[in-house]
Amino acid sequence: ETGVTQTPRHLVMGMTNKKSLKCEQHLGHNAMYWYKQSAKKPLELMFVYNFKEQTENNSVPSRFSPECPNSSHLFLHLHTLQPEDSALYLCASSPLGREGDTQYFGPGTRLTVL
Amino acid sequence: AQSVAQPEDQVNVAEGNPLTVKCTYSVSGNPYLFWYVQYPNRGLQFLLKYITGDNLVKGSYGFEAEFNKSQTSFHLKKPSALVSDSALYFCAVPDSVGGSQGNLIFGKGTKLSVKP
Questions:
Q1: Does the distance separating the beta carbons of A106 and B32 come in below 8 Å?
Q2: CA–CA separation, A33 vs A53, rounded Å?
Q3: Which residues in chain A are closer than 8 Å to B99, comparing Cβ atoms?
Q4: Three-class SS string for chain B?
Q5: Which of A5, A52, A51 minimizes the C-alpha distance to A24?
Q6: CA distance B8 to A5
Q7: Are B5 and B15 spatial neighbours (Cβ–Cβ below 8 Å)?
Q8: CA-CA distance, A75 to B41, in Å (whole number)?
Q9: pLDDT tens, position by position, A37-68
Q10: Looking at the partner chain, which of A56, A90, A100 has a beta carbon nearest the beta carbon of B43?
Q11: Of the candidates A14, A9, A19, the residue with the CA atom closest to the CA atom of residue A75
């Protein structure tokens, strides 16, 4: 295990539901990331938090809302999603969010939107 | 802009044979280069990275990668493949634009299939 956990591991939701994904890292890192991994597409960076401050939002639709209450926890709140949002959502952390830092990934949440 | 390219969607190797997964890069300045592996239904696992120094970088699970500046390549290699090495492999480079230095840009991935 890498020290990054994600819950739930699998999630099925309807388009009108509201749900949240949780990520926790036990590595003492200060930067955390959300990625989306869809079939046949490159890994897409969604959000970056560095020392609890959001430093990147890669034109992600507002139906995805991140929250980072402290350097160890990261949430992704979901509401009124579309079927094309079905994907593997990966969380990662790195020590300082600087060039050359290694990112460590969680196992991911497999999301299916019906 | 920083970028990496993985020219092969899939690589097939017989168990016991050497394997190579290719990656080429385009960066300004001295590159940091990464390799990650993803097993089915799992997150990405860090294998190795090049910072500076020796062109041959050794990593986890017997993998190594060779940094070649003249060919702008960072190919992943293993002398003897195992069936358990079958997975998706990603090359990555930092996104050094503006304040995004900690972000990584990933290649599209190469599926490695090792047959017994």
A1: no
A2: 12
A3: 55
A4: CCEEECCCCEEEEECCCCEEECCEEECCCCCCEEEEEECCCCCEEEEEEECCCCCEEECHHHCEEEEECCCCEEEEEECCCCHHHCEEEEEEEECCCCCCCCCEEECCCEEEEEEC
A5: A5
A6: 31
A7: no
A8: 20
A9: 998 788 999 999 988 788 877 789 999 999 99
A10: A90
A11: A19
> pLDDT tens for residues B46-105?
999 999 888 999 999 999 999 999 999 999 999 999 999 999 999 999 887 655 667 899
Contacts of A100 in chain B (CB under 8 A): 32, 49, 51, 94
Question: Token pair for residue B78?
Answer: 């293993």
| A-chain residues near B102 (CB < 8 A) | 31, 48, 50, 94, 96-99, 101
A70/A32 Cα distance (integer angstroms): 10
* DSSP structure string for A9-23: SEEEE-TT-EEEEEE
The single residue listed with the structure tokens 């990656």 is B23
Nearest Cβ partner for B101 among A4, A99, A104:
A99
Please give the DSSP secondary-structure letter assigned to residue A101: P
Instruction: Judge contact between B39 and B112, C-beta under 8 A.
Output: no
Residue B48: HSE in the Cβ half-sphere, 13 Å Cα cutoff: 20
- Taking 3-state DSSP, the helix, strand and coil percentages for chain A, each rounded to the nearest 5, stand at 5, 55, 40
* Residues B22, B31: Cα–Cα separation, whole Å: 16
CA distances in angstroms from A63 to A57, B78, B79, listed in the order given: 13, 43, 47
**Residue B32 pLDDT:** 92
Q: Which residues of A touch B23 (CB under 8 A)?
A: none
